[in-house]
Amino acid sequence: MKGKGRIWVVLGLMVFLGLGLLNGVSRADESAPSTELAVDVLSQYIWRGFALSDDSVVVQPSMTVSYLGAYVNIWGNYDTDRNNEHDKSLDGADWDETDFTFGYTYDKLPYGASLDVGGIYYALDGDDSFELYAGLSATCPKTGINFGVKVYREISHFPAWWYELSAERDISLPWYQASLSLSASAMYLDSKDKGAYPDPDDPGDEFSDWLYLQVGAEVNIPVGKYLTVTPKVYYSFSLSDEAKDLLEDNSWDNHHDHFFGGIGISFSY
Q1: N or C: which terminal CB in the chain sees fewer CB atoms within 10 Å?
Q2: In Å, what is the CA distance from 77 to each residue of 24, 94, 95, 223?
Q3: Cβ partners under 8 Å of residue 75, min gap 6
Q4: pLDDT tens, position by position, 221-233
Q5: Could you give the CA distance from residue 112 to residue 40 in angstroms, rounded to a whole number?
Q6: Residue 3's pLDDT is what?
Q7: What are the C-alpha distances in Å from 208 to residues 81, 162, 237, 243, 249?
Q8: Residue 130 clears pLDDT 50, i.e. is over it
């Protein structure tokens, strides 16, 4: 199933599960599962510095259910007008990716730190892939900045290690109980597959270097008790000449830097 048929099936599943949970959960029970239904409408799909869309709006719905630290998420990408400079057969609107994430967060570590472990299954138009991940994060009490380090290991196609450093700071705004979230993240790629991520200076070797830095800003605006509207903007760019070449060679728009954004809507209960 492709295109519009797939997007309606996934969206229908999200709504069905969400309404079922809403009907069965007592909000007075603090140990009950929590659910978030969300959708982002963005100017471009950027994944770890690589542009996976070009000159088209993307719609990315998701659903997350969490309970006592455990969580599952389903996420998808619908490209309204695919335009891949490297593959002219990819044209027109299509639902081209569905990701399934499962994990567990333990937030009782010393110094207020949290441990997050889990896996991601990427259902793609081409070869599917599967990652395992583990990360640590903690908030500095003096600055309010949340620092994190996360490691991803691809164990299916395109084997690689991905190392991510991140920092995020939430700032309360003086109107509508809104908040501003500022973020920055950098990724180091240690590829084990020269076919997927070759070293631009030596195609017979795998890429191993810092790949990109992304900075972002989001304004979270509560609308009532359960709904939040979030305008967002990001800028992503390469961190070395070799990374620049790799990102350009594998991005649909042939660019290493990307300025993109849009709006997100989430419903949580």
Answers
A1: N
A2: 29, 9, 6, 25
A3: 60, 61, 62, 98, 99, 101
A4: 999 999 999 999 9
A5: 30
A6: 45
A7: 33, 10, 17, 9, 16
A8: yes
Measured in degrees and rounded to the nearest 5, phi and psi for residue 48 equal 50, 45
Cα three-residue angle 131-136-137, rounded to 5 degrees: 125
Which two three-digit tokens encode residue 229?
């509207």
Residue-averaged pLDDT of the chain: 89
Question: What are the helix and strand counts (H, E) for the chain?
Answer: 2, 16
The two three-digit tokens of residue 79, written as one number: 């490209």
Give the H/E segment covering residue 37.
Answer: strand 34-42
At 6, which helix (H) or strand (E)?
helix 3-24
What is the distance of C-alpha 154 from the center of its chain? 16
Select, from the ranges 6-10, 17-21, 156-160, 242-246, the one with the highest average predicted confidence (pLDDT): 242-246
| Burial class, 157, CB count within 10 angstroms (exposed 0-12 / middle 13-18 / buried 19+) | middle
SS3 of 161, please? Answer: strand
Give dist(CA 267, CA 228) in Å, integer. 7
Place of tokens 């583990």: 134
Query: Is the alpha carbon torsion for 154, 13, 135, 169 positive or negative?
Result: positive
